[in-house]
Amino acid sequence: MSELKITSTIATNQSISVPLLGLGVWKSRPKECYEAVKVALESGYRHIDTAAIYGNEADVGKAIGDSGIPRSEIFLVTKLWNADQGFDEAQKAIDVSLNKLGTDYVDMYLIHFPVSGKRKDSWKALEKIQKEGKAKSIGVSNFMIPHLEELLQDSQIVPAMNQVEYHPFLQDLPLKEYCEKNGILLEAYSPLAHGQKLEDERVTRLAKNYNKTNAQILIRWSLQSGNVVIPKSKNPNRIKENADVYDFSLTPEDMKEINHWNENFRTCWDPTTVV
Q1: Catalytic residue at 54?
Q2: Which residue positions are annotated as catalytic (predicted)?
Q3: How many domains does the chain have?
Q4: Cβ neighbours of residue 83 under 8 Å, at least 6 residues apart?
Q5: Does some domain include residue 263?
Q6: pLDDT, tens digit, for every residue of 206-229?
Q7: Strands 108-111 and 75-80
Q8: Considering 34, 45, 54, 189, which one is annotated as catalytic?
Q9: Which of 76, 95, 154, 235 is most buried, taking the most CB atoms under 10 A from its CB?
Q10: Over the stretch 9-25, which tens digit does the pLDDT of each residue have?
């Protein structure tokens, strides 16, 4: 993976490729979200990840429109929120999102969370949404192995992606192996563990060795692990810093060390409790 660059992509099982590095905009308020997306696109990002519940789809869409970059060159992701799950509800929700984003399609539409009793109907709606061209690809978020097994038993389309919290301190290897076995990309959200492990002395030691920041070490590990990664930031300097990870690579020895840092340290919601 030493030849990685900001334009690197990875193929999905649905005839579309995903840029490995993206910008997450969770908790970015509208105006700051617009500026964050603008800076990201100017810095070379071509993957923007938002969601209906974030409340900033309109600003993401405006920033993309104002960027001057052809829409076809930007990989745009949004998500179906829990309150909108269900077959009919999901079909209405995508239209609301597309209207706010100012586009007639998204590149990836995800079920945001495996809501009990509704996720199967939601997936059937996403299959229809994709066939109608409103989403070029469809996937899920926060799905654990039991949720994926249930979905695959009664679906026409295998999810292109599963977006989950994933970082050196939360490495769910059985889930990653299950996704790989079934051709599902794993996308790492919260790759910096919400900053809660950023000052870990092991990360600091490696950062000094490579003359990089602690955040850059964690992002590079995700990329070299073959994960799609979407670090979140609204700070222009950090957005640029998070993309400055292509002039070095972690050695096999350092990758192996980081691979043993797992603590099952979860910073977001816990989908393992959802039946």
Answers
A1: yes
A2: 54 (proton donor)
A3: 1
A4: none
A5: yes
A6: 999 999 999 999 999 999 999 999
A7: parallel
A8: 54
A9: 76
A10: 999 999 999 999 999 99
